[in-house]
Amino acid sequence: MSARLAIGDGDMGKVQALLERLLADTGCAAVVLSGRDGASLATAGAARALDVVSMTALAAGGFSSTAPLARLLGEREFSVLIHEGVRQSLHVSAVDDATILVAVFDERTTVGMVRVFAREAAAKLATILDETRAGSGHARRSGPGET
Description:
Number of strands: 7
Oligomer: single chain
Structural class: alpha+beta
CATH superfamily: Dynein light chain 2a, cytoplasmic
Low-confidence stretches: 137-147
Order of helices and strands: EHEEHHEEEHE
Strand content: 15-25%
CATH architecture: 2-Layer Sandwich
Number of helices: 4
Shape: globular
Distance between the termini: 16 Å
Helix content: 40-55%
CATH topology: Beta-Lactamase
CATH class: Alpha Beta
Largest sheet: 5 strands, antiparallel
Radius of gyration: 15 Å
Mean pLDDT: 87
């Protein structure tokens, strides 16, 4: 089973505040910070009403499956994936090499607005996660059920 980044209480508060800010700025229904392995690290909004486990696993799988296509185009990877539905849409963006940010939104907001604010949030989240890793001397990992 894959290990998960252990985010301390102080940094988790910063992460949570950024997710809440993204919700407020965009009107998204839910946002989830996830490992690229699909493990949910933090959620905000109506995430409780969603099957977050399945959603993040599928979003992470979809994100990683586009890397070969990106390489065919001379890119390392695509930084953003958008799945647009009739009523609900999904914006998935790279935070760093280990994490992605998943935003669920509907017709009350636009993909452009989500993209702008998600890019800003992802950059700030990357900084927090880098500091978390640096503070431990390396990428501090914990398995499921460990703290």
